[in-house]
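Thanks for the sequence, V.! I ran Intracellular protease/amidase right away. Repeating your input here for the record:
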Amino acid sequence: MQTLRTLATFVLLLLSVWLGGTCTTDAAPRTTVPAAMGQPASGQQDRILFIIASAKVHGTSTLPASVSFGEVVHAWDVFHAAGYAVDFVSPDGGAVPILDDYVSDDVAHRLDDARIMRGLRGTVTPAQIDPTQYRAVYYVGGSNAMYGVAESVALQRIAMQVYEGNGGVISAVCHGTAGIVNLQLAGGQYLVSGKRISGYPEEHERQDAPYFNQFPFLIRQTVVSRGGAFRTVESDDPHVEVDGRLVTGQNYASATPVAQAVVEALRIHTVQASNQAAAQP
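Predicted structure:
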């Protein structure tokens, strides 16, 4: 019996070498090789694109600015659980700033989560993105979200391809809403025009702090000037506005419900598209 087992193991090893892989007799689970840094992942899985600012300081100052790490983690968890893959893009590509003050205690341990940190340390540039591959975009907040994203024509094109070309969802949370204020439909109308929008309002900012004077624009004021209906609550409770395929959240606490609303909006759109296809003669 021992001889037979030894022979079987030897045969398996020979097959493994011949097939170019490895094989073990204890049926160890297979693992997939993660996407290389600096390249968006590939494959047939439905994808969502996180749009993150590259800025490390506020405007022209030396005041440090950062991504809101929790707004990445909480949304990533929802999308991952729903079966979506996530890619990360920023205006400049590469690592984005994550300051300790923007890492809450509930997510601090996720700084060791390679699945997320690989993306944040190696965001791709807009030129590396094929926007036809995405079902939704998610604009991440943090103090640096006020800089470099809203004015990026390349990011605007990606977002509008997802929204108009793919029939996908545009979403944003907290200061991430700054990234959508300049988006325009094919006909030239601002995306936020006539829409219910939320985001971090200027009246909740520390307006006497040096960073506030660096803001290139104010979120509420700009949304309203573009024809949007800006809605918020006075507390730090979650607040989400869903207007068709546009989903926005007010604050850090809104990251999870924003992501949940995106998943639901995508589900509804899929059902509607399926029903329309079935109704075709």
